[in-house]
């Protein structure tokens, strides 16, 4: 029985090892390519024979990448912080308050998830152009910060908090915002961690809205800026690959920092069920 049980697991480990190698191979090749000379960018070998920092040096000194990186970090951080605030407030209201039209409003909130983003690009551009707000940071932060998915996640999580705790706080004289700040937020910390990763990655990888709403090169975000390296007359493949790997760093840091909250936040529903 032991031999029969060990053999399938051995095949499973071999299969998973092969899949892992296949998945990681493009990342390895890209990382090695970022340290190659421009003339060796398309070298098919996986070995790094002549390592060089020329691509990273060109990326940081001859392009606007440092400004693009700052723009993305600022926009994604503010978007995540404001989004967590509004989504947790909205989820708290839908979960623990009773008011007229609550169910209809919640259905409208969920229904907005089915609206493609490109259907609102023209109205957004027209609005921001009329008020001279193009190339401003806030137009990529405020619109959509109360994300319907985040409100839904917070509502489902807060719904499991006993209402007796909130009622007891009200009897003790706590204000509504004090209840939200001192009781609700500490309890929903795992859900906030999971939502923080989702919102940060959504903002960091956002391409279409910055492309339309930001027409100054110094106001580009990283995804939009990197696409400018490949044009009709210029092809900067080395800095493009180097910039791609640098742009992964903030997302990796956020994920490593919040991975416990992510796992806890995504599995809490299954545990309660």
Please explain how this structure is put together.
This protein has 273 residues and is an all-alpha fold. The protein has two domains: 1-52, no CATH class; 64-272, Orthogonal Bundle (MetI-like fold), CATH 1.10.3720. It is 69% helix and 0% strand. It contains twelve helices and no strands. It has helices spanning 2-34, 54-61, 65-96, 102-111, 121-130, 148-158, 163-171, 176-187, 189-204, 208-213, 222-227, 237-272. It is globular. The relative contact order is 0.14. Residues 269-273 have low confidence and may be disordered.
* Structural class by helix and strand composition: mainly alpha
Coarse morphology: globular
Number of helices: 12
Low-pLDDT ranges: 269-273
Query: Architecture of the largest domain, CATH level 2?
Result: Orthogonal Bundle
Look up the CATH topology of the largest domain.
MetI-like fold
Indicate the CATH class of the largest domain: Mainly Alpha
Distance N terminus to C terminus?
Answer: 35 Å
What is the share of helical residues? 55-70%
SSE order, one letter for each helix or strand: HHHHHHHHHHHH
Quantity of strands, as a count: 0
Summarize the structure.
This protein has helices spanning 2-34, 54-61, 65-96, 102-111, 121-130, 148-158, 163-171, 176-187, 189-204, 208-213, 222-227, 237-272.
Quick tags:
273 residues, mainly alpha, MetI-like fold, 12 helices, disordered C terminus
Topology overview:
Blueprint: H1 2-34, H2 54-61, H3 65-96, H4 102-111, H5 121-130, H6 148-158, H7 163-171, H8 176-187, H9 189-204, H10 208-213, H11 222-227, H12 237-272
Helix pairs in contact: 1-12, 2-12, 3-6, 3-9, 6-9, 9-12
């Amino acid at each position: 029985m032991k031999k029969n049980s060990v053999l399938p697991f051995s095949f499973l480990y071999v299969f998973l090892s092969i899949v892992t190698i296949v998945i990681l191979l493009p990342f390895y090749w890209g990382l090695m390519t970022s340290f190659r000379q421009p003339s060796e960018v398309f070298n098919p070998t996986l070995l790094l024979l002549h390592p060089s920092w020329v691509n990273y040096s060109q990326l940081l000194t001859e392009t606007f990448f440092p400004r693009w990186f700052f723009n993305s970090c600022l926009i994604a951080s503010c978007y995540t912080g404001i989004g967590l605030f509004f989504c947790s407030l909205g989820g708290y209201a839908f979960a623990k308050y009773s008011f007229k039209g609550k169910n209809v409003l919640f259905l409208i909130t969920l229904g907005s998830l089915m609206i493609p983003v490109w259907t609102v690009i023209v109205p957004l551009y027209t609005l921001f152009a009329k008020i001279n707000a193009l190339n401003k940071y806030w137009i990529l932060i405020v619109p959509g910060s109360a994300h319907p998915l985040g409100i839904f996640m917070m509502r489902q999580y807060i719904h499991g908090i006993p209402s007796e705790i909130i009622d007891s706080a009200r009897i003790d004289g706590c204000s509504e915002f004090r209840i939200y700040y001192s009781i609700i937020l500490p309890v929903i910390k795992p859900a906030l961690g999971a939502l923080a990763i989702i919102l940060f990655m959504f903002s960091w990888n956002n391409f279409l809205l910055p492309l339309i709403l930001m027409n100054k090169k110094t106001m580009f975000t990283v995804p939009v800026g990197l696409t400018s390296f490949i044009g009709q007359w210029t092809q900067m493949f080395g800095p493009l690959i180097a910039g791609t790997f640098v742009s992964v760093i903030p997302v990796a840091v956020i994920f490593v920092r919040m991975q416990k909250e992510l796992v806890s936040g995504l599995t809490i529903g299954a545990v309660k069920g």
